[in-house]
Design brief:
Elements lengths: L6 E5 L2 H7 L6 E8 L5 E9 L3 H6 L8 E6 L3 H14 L2 H4 L22
Antiparallel strand pairs: 1-4, 2-3, 2-4
This protein binds zinc ion.
């Protein structure tokens, strides 16, 4: 079964983001909700190239109640993980992500899964 390989889920509220995500770092996140038996249902995957904490604050108060996250050692690692998460969880058919992840500005890195 596919895994995001992230910590959580945690409530997607500002003070919980700050309590959990304490490093300023590139990273990845999944947004969604938990079902009755505490299973995290991922609806959206994303990344930040420089500060995953800051990016998660952009999502509070919107359509998702829980988040998971992980730190990445580099921008490239974050991009490649986002691609794997995107494909593992069904891409644009299953997720609310309408577009395939873009490589960071100034790079032409290819998706490790589909090569795009
Ligand atoms: Zn791909």
């Amino acid at each position: 079964m596919a895994s995001l390989e992230m910590k959580g889920p945690f409530p997607l509220i500002d003070n919980e983001v700050d309590r959990q995500v304490t490093r300023e770092s590139p990273g990845n996140y999944g947004l969604g909700f938990t079902s009755g038996d505490d299973i995290f249902i991922v609806q959206y995957v994303g990344r930040s190239d420089d500060d995953v904490n800051n990016r998660l604050h952009d999502w509070t108060g919107k359509n998702y109640s829980k988040f998971k996250y992980s730190y990445a050692n580099s921008t490239k690692e974050a991009f490649q993980k986002e691609c794997r998460n995107y494909h593992d969880f069904g891409g644009g058919k299953e997720l609310n992500n309408k577009m395939h992840p873009d490589s960071p500005d100034g790079t032409n890195w290819k998706c490790p899964v589909c090569g795009n």
